[in-house]
Amino acid sequence: MRLSESQPEEREDITLNEANNSLTISIEDKSEQTTENNGFLPILQNSRFLILWGGQIFSQLADKVYLVMAIAIIASTFQIPGEPISLWVSPVTIAFTIPAVLFGSLAGVYVDRWSKKAVLVFSNLFRGILLLILPFLLWLADGKAILSNLSWGFATLLGITFLVSTLTQFFAPAEQAVIPLIVKKQDLLAANSLYTTTMMALLIIGFAVGEPLLDIADSLVGSWGFPQNIGKEVLVGSAYAVAGIILIALQTKETKKDQSQTESHPLQDIWEGVQYLGKNNKVRNALIQLIVLFSVFAALVVLAVSMADKIPQLDADEFGILLATTGLGMGVSAAIVGNLGQRFTNAQLSFVGSIGVALSLVGLSQATQNLWLALAMTALMGAFAALIGIPMQTTIQSQTPPDMRGKVFGLQNNVVNIALSLPLVLAAEAEAHFGLESVILGLAVIVLIGGMFTWYLALRNTTVKQ
C-alpha cells in the first residue's frame, strides 16, 4: 500500500487521523522506525527553515541577554551603594514572568487566528522598538519619583520588561507552529534538535559573555558620539529588530486550513485546546513529560546555588558553571539526536532519557564534595534531558493539526511556565526540611516515575490501536 511505502505528508496524516485513528497510529509508529536517516542535511538545505533559524538566533540572543542588560541598568542607575541588588532584580524577574502565566494560552488562540509569519515579524520588531526607545524613556523619567522608594525610571523599566515578555508569549507559539509548516514530517526531529542546540548555545553565550558583550556595545556606541550608557539597549533592541527583518523573507505558505476559522470567545478556544489534549493521548503524554522535565530543571536552578556552596572549589555565586555545563551537555546531545535519533521512536528516546536523567541526579546527589563529578553529572543530565525534550516537542508538532497548534503551544507555554514557577518556591523549602541530597534523590524518583508512566501509556495505546 502506498501509505506504507513512503512518509505521508503531515496534512494527509491529520485527515487520516480524523477518518481512521487506528490506521494513523500504525503508520506513524512504523514510519518513526524506518525513516531514512539524513541527519541535519535536509533542513540545512531548506531555505525556509534557514530563514526561521536566522530569526531564532537573533531573537533568542536578545532574550538571553535581556536580564543581564536589566541588571546592568539597575546597577548603574537605580541601586544604592551597599544595597543588595536582589531587591531590584526580583521585581524585574516577576515582571518578566507574569505575562507567561497570564497570556500564554490567550496568545496561542490568536496565533491560530492570525498569520503566523506576521506574528513572528511584528513581535520581534515591536520588541526591538521598545528596547531602542528605552534610553529615551529613562532619560525623561530621570529623577522623578512616584513614591519615596519607587522612581518613574524603575517603573518604566518594569513596564518595558512586562511588554517585551508579553510579546514573547505571541512569538513562542508562532515559532513552534511554523516549524511543521516549513519542515517535512520526517525532518522534524532534526529541526527540533538544531533548534535546541541553538537555544542551549545562546544560553551559554548569555551566561558567559553577556556582560562583556554589553560593555563592548556601550563603548562602541559611545565612540559614535552617542551617550555611552545606551549601548546595551541598542544591542538588544537591534537584535530583536534584525530578527524581525530576517523573518520578513520567510515564506510559510500558510492556507486558510492552517488558521482557525472560528470567531468564538477566546476562552472557548482555550477550552477547545484543553479538550484536544484530553482526547489525543500522544500529545498529552508528551506534554506531561515536558512539564516534569522543566519542573525538575527549575528546581535545580534553585538547588544549584546550594550545590555550588557545598563544593569546595566553588562559591555560591558561581552556580552558573553548573548550569552552563548542563546546557553544554544538552547542546551536544541535541546535535547527536538530530543525526541519529531517526533510528528510534520518540517514545524510546524519551524512556532512555528519563532513565539517564534519573541516574544522573542520583550521581549528582553524591557529588556535593567533588567538582569534577558534579560537572560530569550535570553534563550527563543535560545530555539525557535532550532525549526527552526534543522527541516530545516533535511529537506535539507532528500530532497536532495546523489550526490547533497555536492553542496547543500556547497552553504548553502556559503550563510549563506555571510548572517552572512552583519549584522555584518549593525547592528551597524542601531543601531546608529534608536536605540537599534527599531533594535531588526525590527529583530522580519523579523523573523515573514520569518516564515509566509515559512509556507504559505509549505501549498500551499502540497495543489498543493495533
From TrEMBL:
<feature type="transmembrane region" description="Helical">
    <location>
        <begin position="347"/>
        <end position="365"/>
    </location>
</feature>
<feature type="transmembrane region" description="Helical">
    <location>
        <begin position="234"/>
        <end position="250"/>
    </location>
</feature>
<feature type="domain" description="Major facilitator superfamily (MFS) profile">
    <location>
        <begin position="48"/>
        <end position="462"/>
    </location>
</feature>
<feature type="transmembrane region" description="Helical">
    <location>
        <begin position="440"/>
        <end position="459"/>
    </location>
</feature>
<keyword id="KW-0472">Membrane</keyword>
<dbReference type="Pfam" id="PF05977">
    <property type="entry name" value="MFS_3"/>
</dbReference>
<feature type="transmembrane region" description="Helical">
    <location>
        <begin position="88"/>
        <end position="111"/>
    </location>
</feature>
<feature type="transmembrane region" description="Helical">
    <location>
        <begin position="286"/>
        <end position="307"/>
    </location>
</feature>
<feature type="transmembrane region" description="Helical">
    <location>
        <begin position="371"/>
        <end position="390"/>
    </location>
</feature>
<feature type="transmembrane region" description="Helical">
    <location>
        <begin position="118"/>
        <end position="140"/>
    </location>
</feature>
<dbReference type="GO" id="GO:0005886">
    <property type="term" value="C:plasma membrane"/>
</dbReference>
<feature type="transmembrane region" description="Helical">
    <location>
        <begin position="193"/>
        <end position="214"/>
    </location>
</feature>
<feature type="transmembrane region" description="Helical">
    <location>
        <begin position="411"/>
        <end position="428"/>
    </location>
</feature>
<keyword id="KW-0812">Transmembrane</keyword>
<dbReference type="InterPro" id="IPR036259">
    <property type="entry name" value="MFS_trans_sf"/>
</dbReference>
<dbReference type="InterPro" id="IPR020846">
    <property type="entry name" value="MFS_dom"/>
</dbReference>
<protein>
    <submittedName>
        <fullName>Arabinose efflux permease family protein</fullName>
    </submittedName>
</protein>
<keyword id="KW-1003">Cell membrane</keyword>
<dbReference type="InterPro" id="IPR010290">
    <property type="entry name" value="TM_effector"/>
</dbReference>
<keyword id="KW-1133">Transmembrane helix</keyword>
<feature type="transmembrane region" description="Helical">
    <location>
        <begin position="152"/>
        <end position="172"/>
    </location>
</feature>
<feature type="transmembrane region" description="Helical">
    <location>
        <begin position="319"/>
        <end position="340"/>
    </location>
</feature>
<keyword id="KW-0813">Transport</keyword>
<feature type="transmembrane region" description="Helical">
    <location>
        <begin position="65"/>
        <end position="82"/>
    </location>
</feature>
<dbReference type="GO" id="GO:0022857">
    <property type="term" value="F:transmembrane transporter activity"/>
</dbReference>
